[in-house]
Amino acid sequence: MPQKRFHKHFDTRGPQLYWIIFAYIIIGWFYPVIGLLALICMIGPVLTSIWRGRFWCGNVCPRGNMYDRLLSKYSPHRPIPKFVRTFGFRLFMVFFIFTMFGIQLSQARWSEGGMAMWNDIGRVFWTIIVMTTIVGVILSFIYAPRTWCSFCPMGSISSWVAPKKAPLPKVFTNVHVSGECEMKCKQCARVCPMQLTPFESRGEEIGYLHPDCLKCNKCVKACPLRIIKN
pTM for this one? Predict the structure, then answer.
């Protein structure tokens, strides 16, 4: 008998933001300057993470929404490889992606100015988003939906600047697992998009402070005993 998958899809209500990434890719093909909108999803998650952790990644990012709402239904939900979570690999990805940005931006028609220049710059952002989205989709069908998010450059930077100890910002929210948890069902870990283990923080007053927690509340909603709160 084949071993049953531990991780699984867990459907929850929420805004369907994935249409934004579809529209971005399609419109950006015809109007490259649209690619500059990627700056929002590059700066936004890092800035908000200073006060809220990776909340943006779990609740605002259109691509992340696509992984959770669409691809999660068809992904095999295999364990995300451990090496892609390491600091060394994530640091490499940050330098690699930004190096690619730099090389492509250096080829833009800066001297011409005007719309030609902005189209070239927008095309650089659009191309990077398209290529990384393709990688993310492929990894979703090989491993798990949020595999790319485990080493996404902006997600990694966000996790590095996220609050990790008290005192926490007033707007920061995280899950709290009651000491009553016996860690038997591990349902919270089964439905976690990042394949984290919230149950390990049971009884801790400060709550679950893993920097890669997306604040999606799937663990809260999936707990059969309702002893995980936020």
Answer: 0.93
